[in-house]
């Protein structure tokens, strides 16, 4: 018979191990970004903000950061608009083979980013499209559209259908129903889709690496820094990436889920 | 704004199922019409045809003399008040009510003024800047009414709008609906399965069953002089006595039922083309077995024994079994002051004018519903 005291301790240990496993790498990354020395490995010599200073002074890193934000926001906007239109069409109209169409829309979620990137790369080559941030953005729309569609489609219920019917009854044209009724009503899920999509695009590497040439996104720039070896500066820029992701998730939590909870 | 509605031979089929079967109905300007019937009777289908959410398989619908054939809901002079309110959750009450005007490109100041005027009419002016989720069910219902009336439709369609409210609130909203309808003068077409609600608000009731119109008339006519067995049994409690016509004279009709022969004035016959030997049914409301103490013309169906009784406030509701046919159970409403004791004997005395003769015999199920 295991004593309750022991099982209580064991469950706490398990909990600590679980979170340790998930967060230890990030904690180490962040900790050694403050390393006062040249190597981001133990022993920890003391705290300095020098590496962060270097990161923000590095014009290549900063322009990569700008590119990343641009690609993330732009591709997420496009993915949300397309996802919303697809969800509205499939939820509100009887379309031929709508199950198959829904399946095809979400199917790219199951394909690895590497395969998608390779496919896009050969397609762009064949079409003679030169690689740039635009092609990276297109790649990110391809991976995020299924996600945006799935989230928005899942939130379209029959109750809203009746509300849209009421709007039509009061004289709204179809585009007015979509922009003034459906989209605002579904805003929590549209925002959720948008922020998730931004976070995915923000730290996506493979597609960004294979589909860009001169202008690159932040993960690609970090990767080229890593080729010259580890140093606390890579830790610092990694921490910045992580911080932005956390901030996005917090915004998502605060704006979107707080809003839904209120209703 | 208000307009007449003309429905001619409207039929709506869904695959093999006929939801609406060759229905014709004329609705006058400013009338409060209630479509009454059980679920699946076609009343909501008819309302959807008027609103333009469905188009008839056959037949014509005219509003204000205009054929509505190819007119979509947004272009029709109708608005609908939905059962689940269907308010716009992300808009204030004012924006909800002003939405239809906004779609008609009415300026902001003007439409807000109109919206507040309508919110004032339904008693919610102070809540103009609130969102729908802050309101109770009854308040949401009022906003839905204000929103539907804001665009001054010729015809307002009400799809069981009071179904989700509790009884007391429903009675209150019925009075308000009726009062507002009188005030704005718009033609109202209201769908319900609640016969008391229908009687409370309607100028005319349209009783529907299995896609057809069974009966049309003022609440008094439908209740006291129903034209079909279905109509009689759907509008409140009724006792059916199946019988046969023995003979017809100019002013009287001789009938025999399980309870013996009766002679009734010819005026109580719903079908004027009746012939001798035709199967008919006497329909008698429970409250009409009270004539034993009054004066005037009387008929009797013999005596009946009280099986049980319960006090309902306005009356005693008793089950009686007639002496001549003990298998039959009659429901009777006796006066408040009556003393109802099981085993007592009562005279089944009636004013002949209160009896309705309907063609045909009830199907087994109708009898069950009535009992």
From TrEMBL, chain A:
Give the principal location in a single coarse category: membrane
How does it sit in the bilayer? Multi-pass membrane protein
Q: Which GO terms describe its biological process?
A: transmembrane transport
Q: Which residues form the ABC transmembrane type-1 domain?
A: 65-252
GO-annotated cellular components: plasma membrane
Transmembrane regions listed in the UniProt entry:
12-34, 69-91, 103-127, 133-155, 190-214, 234-257
Query: Record's Pfam families?
Result: BPD_transp_1
Where does the record say this protein resides? Cell membrane
> InterPro entries in the record, alphabetically?
Bact_Polyamine_Transport, MetI-like, MetI-like_sf
Alphabetically sorted, this entry's keywords are:
Cell membrane, Membrane, Transmembrane, Transmembrane helix, Transport
Give the similarity note. Belongs to the binding-protein-dependent transport system permease family. CysTW subfamily.
Q: What is this protein called?
A: ABC transporter permease
Native organism is Thalassospira profundimaris
Automatic annotation (TrEMBL), chain B:
Q: Which UniProt keywords apply?
A: ATP-binding, Nucleotide-binding, Transport
Q: Name one GO molecular function term.
A: transmembrane transporter activity
Quote the SMART domains the UniProt record gives.
AAA
Q: Does the keyword Heme apply?
A: no
Per the record, the GO terms for biological process are: putrescine transport
Write down the InterPro entries for this protein, in alphabetical order: AAA+_ATPase, ABC_SmlMolc_Importer, ABC_transporter-like_ATP-bd, ABC_transporter-like_CS, Mo/tungstate-bd_C_term_dom, NA-bd_OB-fold, P-loop_NTPase, Transp-assoc_OB_typ2
Q: Which GO terms describe its cellular component?
A: ATP-binding cassette (ABC) transporter complex
Where does the record place the ABC transporter domain? 5-235
- The source's domain of life comes to Bacteria
The name on file for this protein is Spermidine/putrescine ABC transporter ATP-binding protein
């Amino acid at each position: 018979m295991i004593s309750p005291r022991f099982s209580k301790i064991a469950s706490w240990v398990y909990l600590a191990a679980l979170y340790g496993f998930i967060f230890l790498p990030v904690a180490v990354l962040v900790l050694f970004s403050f390393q006062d020395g040249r190597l981001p490995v133990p022993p920890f010599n003391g705290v300095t903000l020098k590496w962060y200073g270097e990161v923000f002074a590095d014009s290549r890193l900063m322009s990569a950061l700008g590119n990343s934000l641009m690609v993330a926001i732009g591709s997420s906007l496009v993915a949300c608009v397309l996802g919303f239109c697809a969800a509205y069409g499939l939820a509100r109209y009887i379309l031929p083979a709508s199950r198959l169409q829904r399946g095809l829309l979400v199917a790219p979620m199951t394909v690895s980013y590497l395969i998608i990137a390779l496919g896009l790369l050969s397609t762009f080559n064949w079409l003679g499209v030169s690689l740039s941030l635009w092609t990276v953005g297109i790649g990110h729309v391809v991976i995020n559209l299924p996600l945006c569609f799935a989230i928005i489609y899942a939130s379209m219920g029959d109750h809203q259908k009746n509300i849209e019917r009421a709007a039509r009854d009061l004289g709204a044209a179809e585009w007015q129903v979509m922009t003034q009724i459906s989209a605002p009503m579904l805003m929590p899920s549209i925002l959720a889709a948008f922020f998730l999509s931004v976070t995915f695009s923000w730290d996506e590497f493979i597609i960004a690496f294979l589909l860009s040439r001169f202008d690159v996104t932040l993960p690609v720039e970090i990767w080229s820094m890593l080729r010259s070896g580890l140093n606390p500066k890579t830790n610092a820029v990694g921490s910045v990436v992580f911080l932005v992701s956390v901030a996005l998730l917090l915004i998502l939590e605060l704006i979107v889920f707080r809003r839904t909870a209120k209703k | 704004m208000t307009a007449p509605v003309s429905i001619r031979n409207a039929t709506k089929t869904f695959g093999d199922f006929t939801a609406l079967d060759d229905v014709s109905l004329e609705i006058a300007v400013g009338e409060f019409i209630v479509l009454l019937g059980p679920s699946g009777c076609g009343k909501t289908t008819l309302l959807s045809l008027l609103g333009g959410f469905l188009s008839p398989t056959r037949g014509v619908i005219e509003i204000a003399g205009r054929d509505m054939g190819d007119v979509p809901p947004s272009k029709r002079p109708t608005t609908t008040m939905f059962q689940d309110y269907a308010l716009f959750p992300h808009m204030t009450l004012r924006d909800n009510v002003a939405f239809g005007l906004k779609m008609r490109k009415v300026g902001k100041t003007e439409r807000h003024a109109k919206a507040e005027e309508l919110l004032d009419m339904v008693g919610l002016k102070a809540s103009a800047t609130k969102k729908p989720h802050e309101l109770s069910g009854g308040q949401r219902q009022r906003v839905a009414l204000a929103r539907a009336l804001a665009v001054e439709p010729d015809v307002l369609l009400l799809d069981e709008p009071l179904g989700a409210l509790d009884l007391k609130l429903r009675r209150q909203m019925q009075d308000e609906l009726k009062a507002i309808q009188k005030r704005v003068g718009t033609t109202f077409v209201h769908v319900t399965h609640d016969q008391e609600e229908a009687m409370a608000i309607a100028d005319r009731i349209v009783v529907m069953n299995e896609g057809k119109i069974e009966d049309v008339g003022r609440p008094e006519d439908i209740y006291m002089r129903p034209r079909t067995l279905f109509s009689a049994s759907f509008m409140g409690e009724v006792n059916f006595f199946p019988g046969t016509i023995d003979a017809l004279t100019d002013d009287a009709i001789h009938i025999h039922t399980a309870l013996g022969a009766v002679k009734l004035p010819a005026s109580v016959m719903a079908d004027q083309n009746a012939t001798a030997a035709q199967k008919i049914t006497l329909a008698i409301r429970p409250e009409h077995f009270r004539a034993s103490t009054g004066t005037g013309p009387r008929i009797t169906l013999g005596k009946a024994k009280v099986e049980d009784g319960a006090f309902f406030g306005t009356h005693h509701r008793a089950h009686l079994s007639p002496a001549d046919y003990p298998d039959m159970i009659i429901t009777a409403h006796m006066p408040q002051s009556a003393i109802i004791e099981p085993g007592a004997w009562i005279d089944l005395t009636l004013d002949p004018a209160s009896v309705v003769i309907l063609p045909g015999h009830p199907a087994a199920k109708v009898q069950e519903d009535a009992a």
